[in-house]
Amino acid sequence: MRYAQLCIMLAVVLWGPGSAYAASEIEELKIQLQQMMKRIEQLEQAAATKASAESHIKVAANPVEKAKEPETPTRKVVRAAIGENSGNPSLSLVGTFTGQRIRGSGGVRSSSFLPLSEAEIVFGANIDPHARLDVTVTGANGTMAVEEGFITANLPWGLNLRAGRKFLPVGMVNEKHPHALIYADRPNGLVNMFGPEIFVGDGVLIDRPFFVGDSVQTLTAGFFSTQNDVAFDPTGTSQYAGIARWSGLWDLSDAATFDLGANYLQGKNGIATSHSLTRVAGTHFALKYQGLSQAGFSLEGEWLRRWQQMGAGVTTAVNDGSYLLATAALDRNWKLFSRFDYSRLYDQATPIRLTERAISAGLVWNISEFQGITLQYKHTRNALTAVATDLGIAAGGRANAWYLRWVVAIGPHRAHQY
Fold this sequence. Notes:
The chain contains 6 helices and 17 strands. The protein is of the alpha+beta class. The chain folds into 2 domains: 68 residues; 262 residues, Porin, CATH 2.40.160. A hairpin with a 4-residue loop joins strand 9 and strand 10. It starts with a helix and ends in an 8-residue tail after the last strand.
């Protein structure tokens, strides 16, 4: 722009009317014009260099800007290679070493020191933008089995479909893998309700999350088959049932949340040929607070009731199972917890209500994201049949148990459920 203006001025001077400039003066003007043009080129080059430097600094500070730069041929080749391998599953291995020392009534004594109680091999990957596959294979007591294996599909209208073998969404604990729990055992209330193993089903679950104000609500429904031998069939034969669930999560502050939910499931059991129906209903809650230093506390619990028809003309057995858990996080590495378990059985043969209670306390040291150690003590009184069998004592007895658990994980693994 400046160069064009100078040229116009020079033309006016040279060819304007009445021009009386001498040849020497014209040469001097040419020299000045060349010097000015050279100076302008230097200034423009300096400005371009400064802009390029500022752009590199901005990209280094904000990686998002780097993504906006045009792709070079090398970048395109790398991106294509990554895209070709995006379907390969992530693979991780979780090892749980749990030692225990049990002293019960009747002179029962048992102990073990940090055996490999369970190993989990977890595979997971997105099939395409619409679906994902997750498979968990466990090894325990010298055998291997598929603990979970299901497809998650994203459907229209915000629906999520999960099909395959899945931990059933009953309460809060049953959906979680044991190594993700803060304590080393399974709450007695759930043992009396479904047995010492996780309640699992093969079928289809559909859920629909939606927002109401500052909360997120989720409705879930499903149909499944299960071989659970405590709640459904003592022989372990597959029985079919349906499930419905509601859960809501509210933000109380920037550091606190409140979770509340309820569930109901119903299906035939194999105890008798007729009048054999099992129904389970329950509710759960969780209040959690965690500051920026990761210190905080939580209070959570759940209650379940099972109605189990035993056949025509036979009184329906009713069982309650519940727990209340309090946790205090001292920092990101150390946690304390205490849990109270309560179970009750309405005996079908007598009007007596059998009541079981247990109290636990423990200390957790999370060494890193990939390993943690839990030390726990539990005292159980008036053990019901399922818990008594699990502890190796007689029904109605009491037991003191110590647990030492060491969980290690290698490879990438997904975040645990909140």
